[in-house]
């Protein structure tokens, strides 16, 4: 996602509004912080770490393992979806303002969506 935001920055260099620039930098900062947080979370989701995978093994004694709740994992997954949608909506807001017919605009939106 970070590379996508940096691509957007490069693509519209010199043509974007200050509001778009702030939204773009917000996206870059959010993705960086999100990546750092998820990396730390992934390493500490269960103590000891191997319990995260071994807990589904019926022979594994999980009494020593301390794992975070599934709710925390769901929040992380939802934030991932939010960053995906943000990365999609950001260029769509620019494309919608272009001076071209509706069919070409929709085609560009489809290309960016892919």
UniProtKB/TrEMBL annotation:
- Name all Rhodopsin domain ranges: 1-114
Does Transmembrane appear among the keywords?
Answer: yes
Where does it reside? Answer: Membrane
Which residue spans traverse the membrane? 23-53, 73-96
How does the UniProt record describe the way this protein sits in the membrane? Multi-pass membrane protein
Main location per UniProt? membrane
Q: Name one Pfam family in it.
A: Fung_rhodopsin
InterPro entries (alphabetical): Rhodopsin_dom_fungi (IPR049326), SAT4-like (IPR052337)
Could you list this entry's UniProt keywords, alphabetically sorted. Membrane, Transmembrane, Transmembrane helix
GO cellular component entries: membrane
Give the family this protein belongs to, as stated in its UniProt record: Belongs to the SAT4 family.
Return the protein name: Rhodopsin domain-containing protein
